[in-house]
What does this fold into?
Amino acid sequence: MKSRKLSRTRRRAAILGAAATSVVAGVALLPNWSAGASVVDDPTVDAKTKATFQRLADAVFTDRTDALVAGGQGSREEPLTDGFSGDVRMSSGQARKEDAALSSLDRRKERLAKLGEKYTKGSTTVTLDATSVKGRKAKVAVTETTTLTYQKVRGDEPNTTGFQAHHELTFTADRNGDWQLTAVRDTDEGYLAVNQPAEPTVEPMTAATPTATTAATTTPSAPKASTTYPAAADAKNFTASGLDYQAMAAYAKKYWSTYNTAYPDFNGAGAGGDCTNFVSQALKAGGWKHVPGYVYDYTKWFGNADIQSDSFVGVNEWSWFAQNSKRTTSLANVYQLDVGDVLQVDFDKDGSKDHTMIVTSRSQGVPYVTYHSTNTYSRSVASIIASYPTAAYYAYRT
It folds into this structure.
């Protein structure tokens, strides 16, 4: 980790020195343009340039993944983004942001190691989905696919965890027509990826309070769950309810990245993402039965391709239904969760829950969750907590 930080410091020294010189000269914002130097016409983006955009995007997200990997791959002397200069490169401002991101992920790796979780290797690939050019700015939409291999610390962890995420990169052309990466934006709603350095988007699927058309009863309030590890034993009875918990897990693993066309896809719909809709589908696959009625009544629960109750697709509404119907009980600690159980998170602790996940495996007291928005499989609860240690968590036994 030290060598990574030192190398990044050396790498930025020339950039910062040049910036300081420009400030002294009084031309910090546009050092050459204001001096009357010629400016090329608005540049075009040909196939070769698009390919370079893609390679730089791949380097950015590969560097982030590598920051989480123990050993050689995670301690590369120079980030891959160092290899770009000339026609397509990182701007100095974005380079500083990426340095901060890698440092944040380095610290997360240390927190995970203390919880007994390490990754032996990582693999990231980026595909270019679309490029839009307007004047001297290019907006590049990409899909990142990342897989991390678990080190067998406990012995029966899943082999890997991974996700698919979507990003928009902004490239700005300088006076010579050379493109500089100036911004990276995550475009998944409720973005929650393993190598995400920033805070997630906080936007629940539906309103956090019942409408006048809901049932007259008071909405149930779930108790918060502790995140202390290890947790006191609270073994799950897998036969008492008549539900098929392995079928729930199998459904989630099957459709974590390939959406079931028998249901709508709310990812990117501008309403908070697809997370609860996805968990409801998995619960239904394992035996949860419809409770038909009015869509806004949280005491009802149903969903298909044409219509869904708020409790089927909404984070808070699902919680109200789950507790009111007695289909779930609350667990005291998130590490008590087992296959088929549900975990919810309130990232900003404002009392309105923001994200829903389902447990698809468990290893030596650690649950692993699968979810949509961002589409992710077999991520440990330890990793979630290491990424968002100040959030409020709610654990439901199904």
User: Anything to note?
Assistant: Residues 298 and 311 are 5 Å apart (CA to CA). The radius of gyration is 23 Å.
